[in-house]
Amino acid sequence: MTPSKTKELALKIEDVSIAFGGLKAVDNLSFAIERHEIFGLIGPNGAGKTTIFNCITQFYKADSGSIHFINAKGKETDLMDLSVHEIIDEGIVRTFQNVELIRELSIMDNVLIGAHHVMKQPLLGQLFNRKAIRKDEAESREKAEKILAFLDIEHLKDLIAGSQPYGVQKKVEIARTLMSDPELIILDEPAAGLNDTETKELAMRIKQIRETYQTTILLVEHDMRLVMDICDHICAISFGKRIAVGTPKEIQSNPEVQKAYLGEEGELE
Ligand SMILES: Nc1ncnc2c1ncn2[C@@H]1O[C@H](COP(=O)(O)OP(=O)(O)O)[C@@H](O)[C@H]1O
Ligand SMILES: [Mg+2]
């Protein structure tokens, strides 16, 4: 599948570096993501994949380099000028390597949390205009129900999130990202802990999300079959450095990539 014909970019990462103590976790890394593509970031454990996600979402501030996001209207934003809380307003959301839900709340309530920033009523308005809030809430609930139905978990909406199997919790996390009308969804190891059947379903879902919600997707994943199956382009990194960027075919046959994976569990098939 080819991404947008005009090849508009959605995210540009240029020469980004970040060190922890003496360790360069990300080392002069550059790659660009086209709008509406599914872009994979791969690399052995400790290669710096989660760290680069944290730099994009401004959870960490990169030591150097630039990270620019170009939204669907063509507006370019230097993400390094923003705080971690402002990232969601740009239309960028993420999931976490270890599922992060409020375990004691219902699935519905966990999903509704994702709607917070799109509620139409400003805070002061919320104090005085109860009717408008109820309308906002009703709209959010309806939207959440649609998303849960899209992910086939609507029937579980009133159950406590923490009591659900891991596969369901991962779906709830994805549902929450969809509540914020995202333009870019960043998924950190979405298939980790899933069985074969669940992983196949996830692959289908990610492609469906791209189509239905018209988003760009950036993912880190160890399951090479999933990565090779759904990604338009892949960047392979090792020790924080880029070793190759290309189509799944190009990455699979790249000797540098194969070398980086020798002795790793997630071998390239
Ligand atoms: N907050 C931190 N403090 C110190 N070291 C860190 C921190 N975050 C990540 N690292 C280190 O950076 C390197 C890359 O980690 P990470 O990005 O989590 O790798 P990956 O996601 O590719 O497995 C690792 O050596 C890790 O220990
Ligand atoms: Mg990681």
Keywords:
10 strands, alpha/beta, binds adenosine-5'-diphosphate, binds magnesium ion, Rossmann fold, 34% helix, 2 domains, six-stranded mixed beta sheet, 269 residues, four-stranded antiparallel beta sheet
Radius of gyration: 19 Å
Determine the mean pLDDT. 91
- The number of distinct β-strands equals 10
Largest sheet: 6 strands, mixed
Q: Name the CATH class of the largest domain.
A: Alpha Beta
Query: Which class best fits the helix and strand makeup?
Result: alpha/beta
Q: What share of the residues does DSSP label as strand, in percent?
A: 15-25%
**Helix content class:** 25-40%
Q: Could you give the distance between the termini?
A: 20 Å
> Number of helical runs?
9
Order of strands across the main sheet: 6-7-8-3-9-10
Give the name of the CATH architecture of the largest domain. Answer: 3-Layer(aba) Sandwich
Along the chain, the helix and strand elements come as EEEHEEEHHHHEHEHEEHH
Organism: Alkalibacterium putridalgicola
GO molecular function, one term: L-isoleucine transmembrane transporter activity
InterPro entries: AAA+_ATPase (IPR003593), ABC_AA/LPS_Transport (IPR051120), ABC_transporter-like_ATP-bd (IPR003439), BCA_ABC_TP_C (IPR032823), P-loop_NTPase (IPR027417)
Domain ABC transporter: 11-264
Q: If you had to describe this structure to a student in words, what would you say it looks like?
A:
The chain is of the alpha/beta class. The protein has 2 domains: 6-91 and 182-269, 3-Layer(aba) Sandwich (Rossmann fold), CATH 3.40.50; 101-176, no CATH class. It has helices spanning 49-56, 107-113, 123-128, 130-150, 166-178, 196-213, 224-230, 248-252, 255-261; strands at residues 9-20, 23-34, 38-42, 64-70, 76-78, 92-94, 184-188, 216-220, 233-238, 241-246. Helix 2 runs parallel beside helix 5. The mean pLDDT is 91. Adenosine-5'-diphosphate binds next to strand 2 and helix 1. Residues 49-50, 97 line the site of magnesium ion.
